[in-house]
Every structure is written in structure tokens, then in C-alpha cells.
Write a structure and sequence with these properties.
This protein is an alpha+beta fold. The chain has 9 helices and 6 strands. The strands form 2 sheets. The protein has a 4-stranded antiparallel sheet with strand order 3-4-5-6, with helices on one face. It has a two-stranded antiparallel ribbon with strand order 1-2.
Length: 295
């Protein structure tokens, strides 16, 4: 049985902006539609599992299963209707948490490590794993943002205690949305929206925003300070807008000349090459022709 979402719809400004971005504001979604969407996601997960099994089977048959480092991860999670949200672009755990599974039987034994890790750790960790897990791999050419986790993977060394950082500067956001998690406290800050603070230990479903409450005032101030130390939100917003202006200028120049650049992606007219680059709502673009296809 496919479970339904357990968390209520939220109406903080960023969540509302994401629903508008996905053309889902005010949309009524039935329980059957939710179950079907979740069933499709679980089916996709099973498909990936099967494909990973094929890869591991090929390694086994070729005699390379024990000396090959295999890393299973992802770029983001999926809300699947929790908090009334779908897809990604939010900092709830459903969208933020990803797998980080590393295996190489010849190099290390199976273990589970507890702590916070990030996608930016992948590069220094892979560099550390192809070495001996002792040298500093985070600045061989230039400083890297991530942490080398190879010592923990190879020898079970406890993961370092550090904050987890994430940012959103994508479409649908009126300005940079910044997240810093330290331990169980997750703080979400934007120059244009009220802050959000969750205590994941007492509120794992993230339904109680405790930002501004007196009993966490000191902790919230420290988290806000850490965010300002890591980011210059004003400069970041300016950089994003300047990047947009550059890309729009190049796009307009090519359109005016009638000669799209060789590197510009072109659809072939078949469903497997469809993609979206417009202001049209995602749902109308992605699913608008489904009825025609069914007919």
C-alpha cells in the first residue's frame, strides 16, 4: 500500500513561490493522484536498483567487484506531496537528503557512519580513496569546498562535526535562499522572506518554525552570524542577475542573427529529447499532450 503524505501543506513565502513556479498554486490533487505519483517514484527507484544490480553483476563476472570503488548518490531528493510540495528546490529533508553509499570490498569493510556530509565532499573523497586516505586532497590544485571523507570510509574515523551548507538561486526565488544546519538545528534565511528554524530532534517532520522564539534566540543569532560569515547575500544576488543579463544578451544576439550556436541544445521532435526552456508552467509543458497521446 502506497502511503499518503503525513505532513500538512505549508504557506511560508518560499513554499508558495515554488508552487507558483511549478504552476501548482491552488491545484487540487486527489489521493489517487498522489498515490500514483508516489508509485511512479518508487517504481523509478526500483528501476535504478535493478540497473545498479546489472553494473555490480558485470563487475562480479569480470573479476573486478572487489577492487572497484562504487559510489551511489544523487543530486536531490523529492517532496512527493509532503508539506503540499512536489519535486525539489526547498530545504525540507525530503528534498535535501540523498544517499551516500560507498563500497570497495578489497579496501574496507562495511560500516555505517553517522554525521552530516555533502555533495561537495565527493571530489576530495574520491581523490582520497584513490590514495591511502592520509594526505590532504582538498587543495592539490586549488582549495575545494568539500571535506575528504576517505579516512572515515577506510578506517572508520568519526566524521568531523561541521555545519552543512546549501543555497538556492534558481528560478522561482526572488533572491538567494540560504540554509545552514548545525547538529539538529536547520536555519533557512533569505533577505526577502522571514527566517525559518527547525529543530530536527524534536520536530523531525519540520512542521514547527521556532524562528524568533525566546528559548532559541541565542542559537538563532549564532546561525544567522554563521550565514553572514559564509555568504554575502547582496553580492550573490548581484552575481546571479549579472549572469542572467550576460546569457540573455548572448541569446538575443543569436536570435537576431538567426544562427543558433552549435552548443545550443536542439530537440529532434521525438519525446525522448523534449525539454523545457520557457516561462510556461511546467505541468502544462510536461503533461499537456498526454491526453493526445492516449487518444
Amino acid at each position: 500500500e502506497i502511503p499518503l503524505p503525513t505532513t500538512p501543506t505549508v504557506d511560508d513565502p518560499h513554499s508558495q513561490a515554488m508552487r507558483r513556479q511549478y504552476a501548482m498554486e491552488g491545484m487540487e490533487v486527489s489521493d489517487d493522484q498522489v498515490r500514483n505519483a508516489r508509485r511512479a517514484y518508487y517504481g523509478a527507484t526500483s528501476y535504478v536498483d535493478a540497473k545498479m544490480g546489472q553494473v555490480l553483476g558485470a563487475l562480479e563476472r569480470s573479476g573486478q567487484a572487489d577492487n572497484t570503488i562504487v559510489i551511489i548518490t544523487s543530486d536531490h531528493g523529492e517532496m512527493l506531496g509532503d508539506h503540499g510540495l512536489w519535486m525539489k528546490k526547498v530545504f525540507y529533508e525530503n528534498a535535501l537528503k540523498i544517499p551516500m553509499i560507498v563500497t570497495c570490498p578489497e579496501r574496507f569493510t562495511a560500516r555505517r557512519l553517522s554525521g552530516l556530509v555533502s555533495l561537495v565532499d565527493l571530489l576530495p573523497t574520491m581523490m582520497g580513496l584513490v590514495g591511502d586516505g592520509h594526505g590532504d586532497t582538498t587543495s592539490l590544485v586549488e582549495p575545494l569546498d568539500g571535506v575528504d571523507l576517505s579516512a572515515s570510509i577506510l578506517r572508520g574515523t568519526p566524521l568531523s562535526v561541521r555545519p552543512l551548507l546549501a543555497e538556492l538561486t534558481c528560478e522561482g526565488t526572488p533572491g538567494p535562499v540560504l540554509m545552514l544546519r548545525r547538529g539538529a538545528l536547520k536555519y533557512i534565511w533569505s533577505a526577502v522572506d522571514p527566517p525559518i528554524l527547525f529543530d530536527l530532534e524534536t520536530d523531525p517532520e519540520e512542521v514547527i518554525n521556532i524562528a524568533g522564539e525566546s528559548h532559541v534566540a541565542e542559537a538563532e543569532a549564532a546561525l544567522r552570524h554563521d550565514i553572514t560569515q559564509h555568504w554575502d547575500a547582496g553580492a550573490l544576488a548581484c552575481d546571479v542577475r549579472l549572469s542572467q543579463q550576460r546569457r540573455l544578451f548572448v541569446q538575443q544576439a543569436h536570435h537576431a542573427a538567426g544562427t543558433p550556436p552549435d552548443w545550443d541544445y536542439r530537440e529532434s521532435g521525438t519525446p525522448d529529447t523534449r525539454w523545457m526552456r520557457s516561462n510556461v508552467g511546467y505541468n502544462a509543458w510536461a503533461y499537456g499532450s498526454i491526453t493526445d497521446l492516449e487518444q
